[in-house]
Amino acid sequence: MKKLDKLVLSSFWGPFIITMSVVVFVFLMRIMIFYIDDFVSKDLGIFDYAQLFFFFSLITVPTALPLAMLLSSLMAFGNLGEFFELTALKSAGISVVRAMAPLFIVAIGISIFSFFFNDRVSPWANLKGYSLLYDIKTTKATLKIKEGIFYNDLPGYSIKVDEKEENGKLKGMVIYKHSNRSYELGNTEIILADSGRMYSINDNRYLVIELYNGTRYTDEVNSGGGRPAYISSSMNGASPNFSNFSRNGFRHYRLTESLSSFGMKRTDEGQFKYHEFMKNINDLTSTADSLRTSYIETQKNLVPGSQQYYSYNYKEGTDKTIKSGPWIDSLLAIPLSDSLKKEVLTNTKNASASMLSYVKSQTDYLQTKLKDANKYELEKHHKYTQALSCLIMFLIGAPLGAIIKKGGFGVPVLVSILFFILLYVLTNQGDKWVKEGLLVVPVGAWMANTVLFLAGMYFISKARSDSRLFEKDVYQMYVKRIKTKWASRFGKTLLMES
Predict the structure, then answer these.
(1) C-alpha pair distances (Å), 373 with each of 230, 288, 301, 370, 436
(2) Does the chain have fewer CB atoms within 10 Å around its N or its C terminus?
């Protein structure tokens, strides 16, 4: 390896590693902030969060690679231009394209890595990450009781506390208990206590409720399944007297309930495999082909399937069109009574409504099939476009750095963000047009890369000619030249008129 190649590569790898780490971190934090409400008050361990961060870090890699490639290549050649190293290379007869050669090879290698990562690792990471996220979202919040508000998340209980003290003691507790067997009958047990406390045991698997100085009211449900009604409450604020209720006072009462419903339960990952993000290229191709085959078969069966809505027979011509037969004239020649005409019109209206419903349902079905097929095929193309975008971003970043001649995280970051936003907007717009049926899948999928590739070729041509494309004095001189030309032309006109 020549010293020139070592110089260029040493200027590239440092910014690339830093940029890649920062970009992955930023994308990861964006995802975490988006789902922050689903993590609050969940009894999750560090291992669960570590798994989630790991999977979503892998998911962000294909998106982060193009931006890291653009920014690091722009910074590398911007630093070389800022410290006149590119000028020294040109004076030695070495072109900018030759200086870009080692990074071009690196960009090809990164593109190949991105392709295999996107095809093999990303589907696995998406499946693991989003299935884990779903399990976290569906996990119940931990047991947190607020003062004066009934807490109903503990199965079979409604609990209210009047006051919570710092030492964990609870005052003025009211507990409504309803068994699963008779939940539709309402509260079968009411417990009132002056004070109490709640804590978990056996690694948060069981909840213990200890109550002090209270009364327990139990509804005695009869054997026939009915519930006797209570009569009335006593006067002057005394304890209520319920018909067929039992009442027991206590100084200390202890309840123990399982907290299994609060733990996170893992869902079968097979439920998420239908999504296009969970499939590799072979699976996407197979699914898209099967959907298009089903679409074609449904189209062929439209006419035969519509025969059930007609009360007459028709014949099909050689050109696959429906031909009317002599039955029309014979039908019109038959005299019909008013009642029969009404019946015929009613039957016709019902048949037309049924036919319209059939056509609408089949149209919706065909559109859904076509959209799903385009969706899977679009994702298959994105496996290639995301990988190739790493190389295209290099073709933009390297010549731009040589033209701008500014290193660091100032101008390069601004320019990189602008082109990355352009890539993002063009990609989303192409996807939208494909899903709306305005573009075929290959055109919509490759639109962003095509536009940016042309921009990269333009910047390379400018870098080869040592263009001063981003230097303001060039445009100042151009504006000054136009002003001088206009002044001389209008000056001559005024002299001629005078």
Answers:
(1) 63, 5, 19, 5, 13
(2) C
Query: Per-residue pLDDT averaged across 463-474, rounded?
Result: 69
- Is the CA virtual torsion 57, 59, 65, 66 positive or negative? negative
The reported pLDDT for the residue numbered 470 is 62
Give the CA dihedral 56, 57, 58, 60, nearest 10 degrees. Answer: 90
* Average per-residue pLDDT for the chain: 77
Q: Name 170's bridge partners.
A: 164, 196
Residue 245 in 3-state DSSP?
A: strand
Q: How far out from the chain centre does Cα 115 lie?
A: 21
DSSP E strand boundaries for 223-361: 245-258, 315-316, 322-323
Query: Lowest mean pLDDT: which of 97-101, 234-238, 242-246, 281-285?
Result: 234-238
Work out the end-to-end distance of the chain between its first and last CA atoms, rounded to an integer number of angstroms.
73
- pTM exceeds cut of 0.85: no
Is residue 11 classed exposed, middle or buried when 0-12, 13-18 and 19+ CB atoms within 10 A define those classes? buried
Is 70 exceeded by the pLDDT of residue 268?
no
Cα separation values, 470 from 46, 406, 455, Å: 50, 11, 15
d(CA 56, CA 49): 11
Taking alpha carbons only, the member of 393, 470, 465, 461 closest to residue 427 is 393
CB-based contacts of 355, cutoff 8 Å, min separation 6: 306, 309
User: How much helix, strand and coil, in percent to the nearest 5, is found in the chain?
Assistant: 65, 15, 25
